[in-house]
Amino acid sequence: xxxxxxxxxxxxxxxxxxxxxxxxxYNATISTATTFSPQAPRDTNAAPxxxxxYDPFDYVFGGTEAQSNITFTAGTAVGWFDAQSxxxxxxxxxESVIAAFNGTxxxxxxxxxxxxxxxxxxxxxxxxxxxxxIVSNGGDSSYxxxxxxxxxxxxxxxxxxxxxxxFRDYNGxxxxxxxxxxxxxxxxxxxxxxxxxxxxxxxxxxxxxAGASVNSFTMENCTVEGGNLNPLYxxxxxxxxxxxxxxxxxxxxxxxxxxxxxxxxxxxxxxxNAFLSxxxxxxxxxxHDVTNIISFNWQSSWFGNFYLPxxxxxxxxxxxxxxxxxxxxxxxxTNQVPETNSVVDIGYHYVATDAYGNPLDSNGDxxxxxxxxxxxxxxxDDGETNWALSILVQPTNLLANAGTSPMFSVTAGGIxxxxxxxxxxxxxxxxxxxxxxxxxxxxxxxxxSYYVIVTNNYGSLTSSVAILTVIPPPTVLITNPVNNTVxxxxxxxxxxxxxxxxxxxxxxxxxxxQGTTSLGIVTNSxxxxxxxxxxxxxxxxxxxxxxxxxxxxxxx
Length: 556
What we know:
The protein is mainly β.
């Protein structure tokens, strides 16, 4: 183990690096559904490991055939290499197979060509091919419902330009669906593909699609920065497959695009896109395009370097509202104000954060809003938890003595205002509309089930049921002298006997009184006391119920 007395910024950076190797799949076959999670330990030790640290690869694939679904969980870093020259690839997907990358904003997946991170560990890594990290092996020459799929969310893809693509058709159609992803010097596409990119960033290398067998090409709310080395290329090759490009930003991107539809917007639709002034534009010019941009003036914040300035003409310039694009909890602003249901900003969005760079968690339950609201529409839909309201601390069972004032409480988090309504045995309680419910002078008839319904503008939540148990006071009864016994004449000694019981515990003592004067304490049953030198006069005994004793009262 190394020393902790190193530069703090270096020590912090090492927590995301590793000194351990990846697991390598070389010319392997994955025949059963397999989930891959981070396995190369990140060096989070206070005293880091000695020596050089790499950016992590958990797994590296070369020439591997996936005959069943493969899933990469959040934070998994994956590399690939060409297992052969020419038609080399990292992973080939058989018919109906899905490769899923399930990253998050704070723990994205990575999929990169090996030499972006680590040198080749053996001779198998040095070959160069022209295919891609993930290719199709479905066999169909056009799209079918069983075409293999590469589905990614919050994943960062990286490769050197012209050093193999990220995705590519090979033997049959490949379906590509990328959401909230970033492509760094690496593209995807092909000739027999169906491509869909939603809220993606392309740095230097945009996607492409070309050929008569392409099923569709869609880009929505994407930002393409540069791309001069490998232009955005969409070639129909005589076919009229649909193209949709909307709400996207092109910053100095070289564009090569065919449109065989003859202006048919049911086939090719491009609008609400933004371009530098005088730069290349798409084949179909949109009536709502923003074309007078001198500089996009990109800003930097917690998640990246492509935020918009507050005076950008791209703000609320899109063709749809943000909630309908799943961007309710996202932002383009460094002030981190989320889009909610406003008209969507043009271009790539980041998850909105608090002042410390943490994704917004409106209800305080520890799960960010964008994860609880899985479809990003700002609503509480079936199968989702309420991102805007949560019961953080549930009411708990109470045990109370009769005559006391027990209090139930609930702690709710969420977007204010928040309302409360308490219920007792399923009956609404009047004026019980606070986060606490106090029952004054509680009696046995107050015992039962209590719960509260918490409500705000985003929905209602019902708390768990809490039980109130009320302990009645001990019972005490004077058995001798009997009631209304009269003692006359001179001073005398009177034997006083009482019985006492407590259903919730034991009797520790019985105290006898004459008026407010204590006559004595008896701790064992039978509870008998001799009242010596009783006051001369006419007296009457009547029982007086008290928690710790009984009284013998003078007759009036």
